Amino acid sequence: MHSHLQYVAPKNALRNKVILVTGAGDGIGKEAAISYAKLGAEVILLGKTVEKLEATYDQIIADGGVQPTIVPIDFAGATPKNYTDMAASIEGQFKKLDVVLFNASVLGNLSPFSEITEKEFTEVMQVNLNSQFFMVQALLPLLRKTEQASVIFTTSSVGSQGRAYWGTYSISKFATEGMMQVLADEHKNTHVRFNCINPGGTRTNMRAKAFPGEKASSLLTPADIMPTYHYLAANDSAGINNETLSCQPK
After folding, report:
1. What is the mean pLDDT of the chain?
2. Which family is annotated (predicted)?
């Protein structure tokens, strides 16, 4: 079993780190943001629904964490300029960015390939791929100024092995892994590292939509899979680059 599955982050392992989390209002993103804050990080919460981000914010404050920052953004409609403006704002406020967790994704519809509509394909790719592409471009100058920077993408088992009826989502995750590998290769021997996490079957709303008949209690919770998220955010993973780490024991 891989060591990252049992990783126990030292107390305050993320102190003085600034961490941006997309999709921070729900599921894995919410759990990651809260747990990063518990380890001392200052967290920037990105997501579409302000009320959900506020709930994450309130939990972080209740846990005694550093006051987080809420940045409402709709990845389906955001433009490259929105991301460059956001990057400038982050640099102005924090002067650095240590970790980015790209967690926000949409599932789309599970359907035969021939029935995927242009609208659905465009929407899924916009959120799952394009938004991350333009956000990384905008954030790279700031990440390169940081002493130890870690960029974490979220993939899926269908991002390395295609599966019938998972068309658009699967394609978007293959592209995500490809983007990570390109960035990782361009930045090898630098202080910026790029990796993917495959959470596997986890008790989230997206999983319930994809597998409506599945017994939720048989799945790991977002809290169960946090060791891998802590590992890639912490300096203990400084030598890890161009890897896809699975949160589920084989």
Report:
1. 92
2. Belongs to the short-chain dehydrogenases/reductases (SDR) family.
